Amino acid sequence: MANKANTLSTENRGKIDILTNDVRAIKSDLSNLRTDVNQNRKAIDKNRKRAARGVAGVAAMANIPSALPGKSAIGIGIGGFDGENAVAVGVGHHFENGIAIKGSISTGNATNSIAYGAGMSYSW
Fold this sequence. Notes:
It is found in: Cell outer membrane; Cell surface. It holds the Pfam family YadA_anchor. Keywords: Cell outer membrane, Membrane, Signal, Transmembrane, Transmembrane beta strand. It comes from Gallibacterium anatis. The protein is α+β, with helices and mostly antiparallel strands. The chain has one domain: Pantoate--beta-alanine Ligase, Chain: A,domain 2. It is built from one helix and four strands; from the N terminus they run H-E-E-E-E. It has one helix spanning 2-62, and strands at residues 72-81, 84-94, 99-108, 114-122. The chain has a four-stranded antiparallel β-sheet with strand order 1-2-3-4. Strand 2 and strand 3 form a beta hairpin. The longest helix has 61 residues, at 2-62. The protein is rod-shaped. The mean pLDDT is 89.
């Protein structure tokens, strides 16, 4: 009887050791997963802010008034989106023959990136 009990105890100890090692591995994996999730959260927030700055820049450029027919113009515009702001400057000319051209550039708060655009239209 004592031998049987010792055998069961040894078998159980081996199984317990295996489970203990598995639990340690799971805890380590969970810790790594938490770290990865936090890094992804930071990257997502950074990209969201970057995108919002871009939208604000485009809004600023879009709000620069166009030149009147036969005239040239320089203008500024401001824009904002999702807590981010931008200012833009642009120039344009509207020719007498119905062709208009425009170019603009914008920059936002706390960023070194610049958005730019140019366009041309023909009206009749």
